[in-house]
From TrEMBL:
Its EC number is 2.3.1.-. It comes from Chromobacterium indicum. One of its GO terms (molecular function) is acyltransferase activity. InterPro entries: Hexapep, Hexapeptide_acetyltransf, Trimer_LpxA-like_sf. SUPFAM superfamilies: Trimeric LpxA-like enzymes (SSF51161). Coiled coil: none annotated. This is Acyltransferase. Pfam families: Hexapep. Keywords: Acyltransferase, Transferase. PANTHER family: SIALIC ACID SYNTHASE-RELATED. The keyword Heme does not apply.
Length: 193
């Protein structure tokens, strides 16, 4: 029996009685315990068995993390608050079928696609990532963005509704690295991977 994982799950559930808080340590669906990953006790994770998350990830308060279609969250990602990361959506199918939606199977318009968040990406508050998003490493999704399905390049800054690429995070990173050149080696260890 994996006591670390059991204790983590119990602590996670009990913390909901207290207040929103970050729970340190997370057990993936495959049983691997990630001691540097932090997840809010107020975030909803659906289909944890289809979630592949790397270590050193931060998932803040009041998010919906839907992994039903397969979800990968790379190392060092930050998902702030009030974010929806989706891998399925029935919004088109429900409009098409109307009142008959619940009486039918194999719905036309039902979306189910895997979603991928590249390493060291940042998802701003109140953002929605639709099924089929492939976000490159080192990217930023600005607050209140609606990100449609698609492949987005490494280091992209996305903003808007619908979101589009409006910049490159390396531009801002270069300023910080110029001020602290000792960090080049650490930055390049993941950025050039």
């Amino acid at each position: 029996m994996n006591w670390n994982g059991l204790f983590s799950r119990i602590r996670f559930r009990l913390s909901a009685w207290v207040r929103p808080r970050m729970v340190y340590g997370f057990q993936r669906g495959d049983g691997v315990f990630l001691k540097r990953t932090r997840v809010s006790n107020m975030t909803r994770i659906e289909h944890i068995d289809k979630l592949m998350v790397e270590d050193n990830v931060y998932i803040g308060h009041f998010n919906l993390i839907d992994a039903s279609g397969g979800l990968y969250i790379g190392e060092g990602c930050q998902v702030t608050n009030y974010v929806s990361v989706l891998t399925h959506s029935s919004h088109v199918a429900i409009r098409l079928y109307g009142r008959e939606y619940l009486t039918r199977d194999n719905h036309v318009g039902y979306l189910k696609k895997s979603t991928r968040l590249g390493a060291y990406s940042f998802i701003g508050p109140h953002s929605v990532l639709m099924p089929g998003v492939e976000l490159g490493k080192g990217s930023i999704v600005s607050a209140y963005s609606f990100v449609p399905a698609g492949e987005y390049p490494d280091f992209a800054i996305l903003a808007g509704n619908p979101a589009r690429v409006v910049g490159d995070t390396r531009d801002g990173d270069a300023e910080w690295l110029a001020q602290s050149p000792e960090l080049h080696r650490l930055y390049e260890a993941w950025a050039n991977d």
